[in-house]
């Protein structure tokens, strides 16, 4: 599947690298692709992704989740206003969590005990 936005207005803004911590600047293209701040549009996007796109989005968590929290849970988290960059990277984290969940639920085999539970439900 080719990546497409659910609605044109869902497109994240173009980010200013100067407002993104240096260690995350290489992730700006990923953030601009998946960092949709609207929950509904983000859900639609993740639901429409194929396995490769889900893996691309979720891979972000493996390397950056804890490190990203240093920025997103740092002083800027106190507001009162937030930069577009902060919002888009926050949304990328939520998108990656959703993509990881969808990958696990859709593309992994259930464990033996899970099959037994499902058949009795």
Mind explaining what this structure looks like?
By secondary structure, this protein is mainly α. The chain has a domain at 29-107. The protein is 60% helix and 0% strand. The protein is built from five helices and no strands. The chain has helices spanning 28-34, 39-48, 51-72, 84-107, 112-120. Residues 116-121 have low confidence and may be disordered.
Q: Mean pLDDT, as a whole number?
A: 82
State the end-to-end CA separation: 34 Å
The helicity comes to 55-70%
Count of DSSP strands: 0
SS field, number of helical segments: 5
Q: How does the major sheet shape up?
A: none
Q: H/E series, N to C?
A: HHHHH
As residue ranges, the low-confidence spans are 116-121
- Radius of gyration, in Å, reads 16 Å
Binned strand content: under 5%
- Category by helix and strand content: mainly alpha
What form results from the Cα inertia axes? globular
Features:
disordered C terminus; globular; mainly alpha; single chain; 121 residues
In short:
By secondary structure, the protein is mostly helical. Helix content is 60%, strand content 0%.
Strand-helix topology:
Elements lengths: L27 H7 L4 H10 L2 H22 L11 H24 L4 H9 L1
């Amino acid at each position: 599947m080719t990546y497409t936005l659910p609605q044109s207005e869902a497109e994240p803004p173009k980010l200013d690298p100067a407002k993104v911590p240096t260690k995350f600047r290489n992730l700006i293209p990923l953030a601009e692709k998946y960092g949709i701040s609207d929950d509904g549009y983000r859900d639609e996007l993740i639901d429409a992704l194929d396995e490769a796109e889900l893996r691309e989005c979720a891979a972000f968590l493996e390397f950056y989740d804890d490190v990203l929290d240093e920025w997103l849970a740092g002083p800027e988290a106190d507001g009162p206003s937030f930069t577009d960059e902060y919002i888009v990277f926050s949304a990328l984290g939520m998108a990656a969590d959703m993509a990881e969940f969808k990958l696990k639920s859709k593309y992994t085999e259930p464990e033996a005990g899970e099959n037994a539970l499902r058949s009795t439900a």
